[in-house]
Task: structure prediction
Amino acid sequence: MHVNTGFVILVAALVTASLTDIAHRRIPNAITYPLAAFGLLYHLHASGMNGLIFSITGILSGAALLLVFHLLGKMGAGDVKLMAAVGSILGPAGVFTAALYSAIVGGLYALLVLWRHGALHHAVYGLALAAGGSVPVASTQQPAAAPRAGLPRLCYGLAISLGTVLAVLRPL
Result:
């Protein structure tokens, strides 16, 4: 099996970003910028101007996919830059697939965090009310105990990393 250099560099950067996000709740530019530069140079070397355009449109697409969440205060800038750097290697279609897988992983991760902190029932109740007020008869009263205050923020870099690897390995 042939291992692509771009994939090895991408996975190494994603592992580093995940560990840093978990440990420090941030993804530093020292990870995202070199990864984006690598993607630009890698594709420029491999395919000339077409490769450079592929990489630039991947960066712009990756950033655009998460920028709204950052502007709404729901996601850190490091997450946006990490997805942009992923786009530099995977290109626009690949980063879209990676973002989709990352959203699925992130949703599962969020459910796990809610469950672990005893807040999953409250979240399901709130979603049912928001979806039109249809709550099952057994759950017509709001749960007595409120979830513990201060639920931890998600380390979305972990979701981006796992989702990206799943997206890349999907065709295999």
Summary: Residues 93 and 118 are 38 Å apart (CA to CA). Residues 142-148 have pLDDT under 50 and may be disordered. DSSP finds five helices and no strands in the chain. The helical segments are 5-24, 29-71, 77-116, 120-130, 156-169.
